[in-house]
Amino acid sequence: MSSDTVNTLAADTRLVREHLAAVSLPEAMDAAQIADYKTRIKALLKEKDAVLVAHYYTDALLQELAEESGGFISDSLEMARFGRDAAASTLVVAGVRFMGETACILSPDKTVLMPTLDATCSLDLACPAEDFDAFCAAHPDREVVVYANTSAAVKARADWVVTSSIAVDVVEHLAAQGKKIIWAPDRHLGAYIQKRTGADMLLWDGACIVHEEFKARGLLDLKALHPEAAVLAHPESPDAVLEIADVIGSTTQIIQAAITLPNDTFIVATDKGIFYKLQQLAPHKQFLVAPTAGDDATCRSCAHCPWMAMNSLDRLYNTLLHGSNRVTVDRALAERAMVPLQRMLDFSAQHKLKVAGKA
Question: Is 235 helix (H, G, I), strand (E, B) or coil?
Answer without folding.
Answer: coil
